[in-house]
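FAQ

Q: What does a record look like?
A: Structure on top, sequence underneath. For example:
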């Protein structure tokens, strides 16, 4: 994600490539980045070995006790994301600061990855957050040392995290794809023969995980694992394209590339949107009508924006209704948005994730909706007026004007 930067290695300016600041042909341009990389490699190799030994010890302990062994995925994520990448990012930015690179951007994803998998307040996620704080602190100390360079340091959080409940805890082994296909039913205006329900075509047997991770039974379980893994991808079935995406699901009607309004959806699939909105695993159902965007909540239909006063819908009965409405209007104006968008917020069990995650974002809850910007104290800018990301453009455009 280089963001259109002139030069990028992952998300920092350059680590192993010489530039005009360091000298294109000078010895320092070749040697310094190599030594930096070797130091990171040596340090993280030791950390990686420790993590592998720790996981192996847990495997042997649990296997000897007859318990299911821990998955190797969490330690791998810790080493790769919270280890190698973060250290490379931090030292890469530090190197570029000393080299005088005029503008740098780095994205730390450690906490986000752990919060999705384990929950936003899980000890491992909070440890990752503290590690990110340490990296930001290291960069801030370098900026303070280089006062003659007059760097401005910004720390920007683009969203928060909300604890979520996996959809399978609400519906057992049924997937959200099964739910959507069942709620829509056959297309009343299609001339094609109706397809059998997804569950009837692909039965899902109970999955019993083996104790030993290399046991032969894993091979027999792959057929059952495949369906669960496919939930992270788009599924085309019955004239629909269903895309689970964390706490939301985009549903596209595939008979036309054009946007499909609620009136046509109702004609093709009578009552489908109302049925979805009353399901215990779904909070809100968003769609577009000829009169404007609408929100279904527990069988009731609300216009966006709603009329003044109480609505009975927690999405609108909030002090920040104007901000929520603005975000919903932007979402439903996106050409890539689904013809129907499902949200797992404000269900009977809290926030539901359709990707089996314990932490979610991209929704309308206050915990997700409000990011923060830590900016230099001397900066004159009206952050209170910021409503969309593009409202920050004038702030950073100033630096281009100064060049």
């Amino acid at each position: 994600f280089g963001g259109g930067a002139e030069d990028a290695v992952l998300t920092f300016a350059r680590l192993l490539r010489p530039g005009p600041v360091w000298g294109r042909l000078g010895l320092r341009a070749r040697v310094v980045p190599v030594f930096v990389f070797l130091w990171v490699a040596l340090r993280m190799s030791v950390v990686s070995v420790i993590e592998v030994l720790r996981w192996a010890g847990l495997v042997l302990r649990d296997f000897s006790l007859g318990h299911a062994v821990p998955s190797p995925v969490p330690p791998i994520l810790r080493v790769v994301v919270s280890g190698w990448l973060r250290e490379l990012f931090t030292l890469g930015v530090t190197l570029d600061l000393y080299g005088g690179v005029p503008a740098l951007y780095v994205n730390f994803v450690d906490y986000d990855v752990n919060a999705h998998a384990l929950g936003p307040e899980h000890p491992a996620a909070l440890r990752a957050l503290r590690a990110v704080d340490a990296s930001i602190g290291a960069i801030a100390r370098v900026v303070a040392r280089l006062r003659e360079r007059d760097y401005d340091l910004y720390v920007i959080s683009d969203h928060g995290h909300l604890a979520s409940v996996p959809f399978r805890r609400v519906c057992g082994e049924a997937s959200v794809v099964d739910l959507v296909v069942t709620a829509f039913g056959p297309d009343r205006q299609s001339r094609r023969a109706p397809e059998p329900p997804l569950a009837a075509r692909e039965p899902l047997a109970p999955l019993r995980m083996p104790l030993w991770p290399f046991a032969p039974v894993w091979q027999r379980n792959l057929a059952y694992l495949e369906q669960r893994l496919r939930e992270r991808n788009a599924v085309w079935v019955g004239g629909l394209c269903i895309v689970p995406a964390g706490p939301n699901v985009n549903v596209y009607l595939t008979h036309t590339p054009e946007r499909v309004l609620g009136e046509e959806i109702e004609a093709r699939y009578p009552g489908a949107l109302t049925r979805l909105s009353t399901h215990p695993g779904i909070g809100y159902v968003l769609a577009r009508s000829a009169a404007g965007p609408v929100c279904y909540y527990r069988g009731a239909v609300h216009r966006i924006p709603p009329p003044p006063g109480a609505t009975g819908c927690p999405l609108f009965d909030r002090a920040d209704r104007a901000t929520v409405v603005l975000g919903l209007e932007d979402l439903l104006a996106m050409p890539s948005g689904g013809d129907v968008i499902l949200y797992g917020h404000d269900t009977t069990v809290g926030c539901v994730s359709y990707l089996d995650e314990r932490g979610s974002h991209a929704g309308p809850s206050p915990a997700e909706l409000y990011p923060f910007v830590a900016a230099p104290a001397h900066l004159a800018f009206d952050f209170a007026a910021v409503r969309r990301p593009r409202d920050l453009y004038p702030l950073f455009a100033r630096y281009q004007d100064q060049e």
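Q: Is there anything notable about this one?
A: The longest strand covers residues 240-245.
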